[in-house]
């Protein structure tokens, strides 16, 4: 089973990167093929690249994709153009998941200058169909107070984080005084009992271990304006604590312990001597920092020098500021792990891994997570498949501004080789104003120069209907008919129209010239409804006013096949005002019979009906109305009993939910012809072109 986990912060500075890379180590120890990806760069230091992917690269053989720079994605977010970046992210995720079973995605942490972190993390969860792991850090609050914060935050989470029960990791929790009497597993079980909740699972607790934040002396030296008096073991010794020593030595004895950085004025010979004594006794101080503008007594330094060389040597540094100023500056240092500090990276990853509930992770990864194709992922799939197909698609409304703009974008993204049919001068001027170019992926066809070529072929196709050359010439004055003839003769792979024409105007020439495919009883249509969390399919909402049971079954099978072709595993609900016999009447009987026919023709298809819409979509309603249905509460393909119901429902959902709808896509023709709504957007046209190109390749 393949699983994507998104780590999401609760509160500021939760240690999200530490937990994320620690999860990589955890899954690696479980034997999973695990990968890591941080889509959006976010570093404490704007002058350096985000270190998170470099940590993984430093201690594993994995090279994560480079994150999108903060300057790029923050600007795109401001301009509401983040969807194009999400498609790039989806491409990276798809590539990673080809060779891995588990992917850890690191989300964004809150920053004062960025107010949309929650929205972006929600977009990631939706777009990637990711399971959420929430990370919270215990600060000064008690565990009970921490639980209250967690409960409150869980309640406010948006839906995609709750598609699967979210997991929680508590980072840097404070261990009880008697915790040394418990094993780590026992301590975790006690914590888990305290955080027991139906709303989330506590899957990890990482103790507040000072060693995880222990900076090397050499990194400290690079961060402050210090000179080196004695280098010592500057490469390896680490700072566990800063100790400002300004009192009498007898009051400071507790400061001279392993990992302490002793900060004292340069004229405090007693403190310097005490540091030398500690070193001679085998206490590995982190280092000695001498402050102020006074000189070190040379006799004292010479007296202590031998002791400073014990155990690799005590580093002695000099800083010209006062001890108080120096200590204040030290405490404000960025303690981010340097990417070349392999030992500390491994320590962080190992500490986090030891705090994880591996049984929970193993069990979760054994479960099959229902696939939800998000709108962004769906559009990315369309773009990728269409580009691969490389089809020639005709746009007979070639002078229409939205159509021209969409054709330019299709050309830029190589979604299809679009042909704009219309006056070359009008089209050319518009293309130039939009900074587009005519070339391999964008053509202009002058219908006046092309029409005569299709008079004889049209007469040949329609002579049984009494069509004459004169009638054919008149018919070809319509650019949609001209384009349909070109598709019929194989000179183009498909056509898209309807931005300024009715559905009937687009479909009628196709029905008479391209005709119905041999395996289809009729031509029908579907809409791809791009709801916030997933893409649903509605059919038939554009073509057949009142199909009979046989035709309705055919629409269901066509729609299921289309769903599969576009990466949606079909779960088909046959919609009615009755759920599985709760009501009666001829309309219900028609849907019942259509369901039976569809099951008989394709036994492997997951289909059920009649179902009311709420029973088909809502799990709690389904549990009451249709508890044994394989589709109820979980449908993604909806087949409406007639055009009145389908068209009304699609428009109501589109406008009320403010969701994009792509289509109608026609099914059952020998070659693809697709219709647009007259209220279509540029984006709608782009993806309808992509749909058409993919249909042509199938």
Automatic annotation (TrEMBL):
It catalyses: acetyl-CoA + phosphate = acetyl phosphate + CoA. Involved in acetate metabolism. Residues 222-328 form the DRTGG domain. In the C-terminal section; belongs to the phosphate acetyltransferase and butyryltransferase family. Its main location: cytoplasm. Gene3D superfamilies: 3.40.50.10950, HprK N-terminal domain-like, Isocitrate/Isopropylmalate dehydrogenase-like, P-loop containing nucleotide triphosphate hydrolases. It comes from Rubritalea spongiae. This is Phosphate acetyltransferase. Its EC number is 2.3.1.8. Pfam families: AAA_26, DRTGG, PTA_PTB. CDD domains: DTBS (cd03109).
